[in-house]
Amino acid sequence: MPQTLSFDFILTPNGVRENARLLVDDSGFITAIEDAGDEHRSGYFALPGMPNAHSHCFQRAMAGFGERNLGTDSFWDWREHMYRLANRVTPEAMYIIARQAYSEMLAAGFTSVGEFHYLHHLPDGTPSKDMAEAVKRAASDVGIRLVMLPVLYMRGGFDTPLQDSQKRFGHADLDSYMRMVDDLGDIPRGLAPHSLRAVPVDLLPELVQAGRDLLGDGFPMHIHISEQQREVEECMTSCGASPIDSLADTVELDAHWNLVHATHVTQSELGRITSAGARVVICPLTEAYLGDGIFPASDFVFRGGELAIGSDSNVRIDAVEELRMLEYSQRLQQQLRGCLATQDGLGGHLWSSTAEAGARSLAMNAGKLEVGAMADIVVLNAHAPPLQGPRGQRALDALVTAGSRENIADVYVGGRQRIKAGQQEGQELLGRQFAKVVGGLLND
Questions:
Q1: Which of 292, 312, 318, 376 is catalytic?
Q2: Which of 311, 368, 374, 421 has the maximal Cβ count within 10 Å?
Q3: Is 40 considered catalytic here?
């Protein structure tokens, strides 16, 4: 039935509104925002739920593994640890890991997720829908909004075939990949060529057209690109241009495209991305975890670029900390403060802009609290530091500079409460099942 949710503060696209209520219809959409008067409050400060624009949920099981320093440890060494995990995950394990990751996402402020899914086949390589079905069932059971981004993975490197450790991910041709996308059913979907390492760049126009034929014109495209310097160098050798330039020279790089990481980007490439209206999906905690480097976010935003955020490897899931790492990495690189702030402050603008861009990256009517949008809501707790004292915009500045997911009290998806007082019902049991699965996968 329709409901009313009242708050001391609401972060709207037009800024912070005080003493207001949201009217939500039976379908979970906001129908009105009104003055609340003296009525009972549903919570302190309502923010739009943050879309998670890039996730590999199975990697939630990797936290704590692969951290020994063997002298030259890099992203490429970490990848071998990841393959070890990937090739052991069964559909049953995938369900439990995904359920844990998605439950944590909700509690951490993410109300929707774009799942960059490439564990397509069973551990023995047999094609199967079971892995994708496990992800879909986990999202449904937890209550997070899911967009599937099935990954096209065709080769092991620019000039190398798939390795044995990558064959669970692979498709021999575009037709078999598109059949898999079609078999996902009516769940919201996009397309995700893994990278130019894994998909020949000259195949991308055909992939885009196949996507239009199956999904229509509004589907999102996501691709890993220019994450590592070695990747850029190998692309220069193989294609004669950088990954971003190769992509932009081959396809119409428009607002459907979402470039994940783009860490090693040049100033001219920044110009090409922004002028085309493409988006960058940045994953600050994972990019630090993997040693990728620092994307020039403030330069990109200054040019008018749109930034969405993702939790990627999911070793730490926290929307607030993603934003803090995003801002603080720019401060460390430039030796300045307030790199992504406006005259009104840092927190409100940073949360709003990344939430709206994240929703657009997943082709969703979410990421903002306004009439007609989905009632995906994150509610802050006024009674825990650092939110005791600061109010309005300053409370959001305090959240991003000093807070964490511990400051999130309640979470609603489509007007339905999924997190209450920081917890999801049954969380303790989920955690025990997750611990048992992880111990069986990697503790040997």
A1: 312
A2: 311
A3: no
* Model confidence, pTM: 0.97
The whole domain housing 18 covers: 3-48+365-427
To the nearest 10°, report the CA torsion of 380, 382, 385, 386. Answer: 70
18 Cβ partners below 8 Å, 6+ apart? 8, 9, 392
261 catalytic, yes or no?
A: yes
- Both 333 and 408 in one domain: the answer is no
Asked if residue 89 and residue 16 are part of one domain, the reply reads: no
Question: Which residues face 89 on adjacent strands?
Answer: none
Residues 136 and 76 in one domain: yes
CATH number of the domain enclosing 252: 3.20.20.140
The answer to whether residues 103 and 70 belong to one domain is: yes
- Supply 247's token pair: 């992509």
Classify residue 349: in a domain, yes or no: yes
CA–CA separation, 3 and 92 (whole Å): 37
> In this structure, are residues 108 and 319 in contact, taking their beta carbons and an 8 Å threshold?
yes
Residues 237 and 164 reside in one and the same domain: yes
Cβ pair 285, 310 in contact under 8 A: no
Per-residue pLDDT of the chain (444 residues; tens, 9 = 90+): 789 999 999 999 999 999 999 999 999 999 999 999 888 899 999 999 999 999 999 999 999 887 877 767 889 888 888 999 999 999 999 999 999 999 999 999 999 999 999 999 999 889 999 999 999 999 999 999 999 999 999 999 999 999 999 999 999 999 999 999 999 999 999 999 999 999 999 999 999 999 999 999 999 999 999 999 999 999 999 999 999 999 999 999 999 999 999 999 999 999 999 999 999 999 999 999 999 999 999 999 999 999 999 999 999 999 999 999 999 999 999 999 999 999 999 999 999 999 999 999 999 999 999 999 999 999 999 998 999 999 999 999 999 999 999 999 999 999 999 999 998 988 888 889 999 999 999 765
Residue of 120, 261, 264, 349 with catalytic role: 261
